[in-house]
Amino acid sequence: MDMGRLDGKRALVTAAGQGIGRASVLAMAAEGAQVFATDINEAALAGLGDGIEAFVLDVRDPDSVAQGMARARPDVLFNCAGFVHHGSVLEAQDEEWDFALDLNVRSMFRTMRAALPGMLERGGGSIINMSSACSSVIGAPNRFIYGTTKAAVIGMTKSVAVDFITRGIRCNCICPGTVESPSWHDRVKSLGEQVGSYEEALRQFVSRQPMGRVAKAEEIAALVVYLASDESAFTTGQPFVIDGGWSG
Ligand SMILES: NC(=O)c1ccc[n+]([C@@H]2O[C@H](COP(=O)([O-])OP(=O)(O)OC[C@H]3O[C@@H](n4cnc5c(N)ncnc54)[C@H](O)[C@@H]3O)[C@@H](O)[C@H]2O)c1
């Protein structure tokens, strides 16, 4: 039997019900990892297949995070949960700011703090945080709150990487351009209401991608597998931009 690139590793994924999280669960399982697929939406976790353990984990709830980490004892933690608010600094609402800082940034502090002691005890681990090309890499129109939180993810990633670099822990983050996913389809629909049609909104989203298309979730999942595996053993503290040349 072929060896999988993630044989023997236990991997926990947040926001695994759809989009990049779900694609990453399937890709890591295909490479031999024992995968724990978690999401706030239980129904979305259905149908992932045999051998993948799926359970509800709300990254905004410290008890839920603690229980999830105790159950999974992950060697690989993929912090994928995040939400996109629309608008410039002038439209941003305090409640949106609080929500996004909690879901996009503080949640990763919670999960990393809960997962790290076990990783250290077992002698190593790989943490992969979901940032975005829209962050400190590039400014995107009407992504004030989102870009700010995703820039914070890069800083947090570097900080964790440097603190644990001699103790077997690696921490990297991923900065995708636009990726096809259910929430992206919702964003196209809502832009369509402003610009006249779904087709025009789609044209605007695609036109900012120099390759003339958006990414498939599986293309991001391939990078997740690499960062989870020992193939990436010499990399830590890095933002990995995977954006079809958007910021290039
Ligand atoms: N799609 C893109 O274009 C794109 C680009 C760059 C970065 N990202 C980032 O990738 C990540 C995933 O985005 P996507 O578009 O692939 O998926 P998505 O937005 O379609 O799905 C998000 C999932 O997160 C879950 N979720 C929401 N709140 C949660 C909570 N409190 N705890 C646990 N799970 C929760 C939802 O139930 C849902 O299944 C996000 O962090 C997003 O910011 C996406």
Automatic annotation (TrEMBL):
Domain of life: Bacteria
InterPro entries noted in UniProt: Sc_DH/Rdtase_CS, SDR_DHRS6-like, SDR_fam
UniProt keyword terms in alphabetical order: NAD, Oxidoreductase
Entry's family note: Belongs to the short-chain dehydrogenases/reductases (SDR) family.
Name used for this protein in its record: SDR family oxidoreductase
Gene source species: Thalassococcus arenae
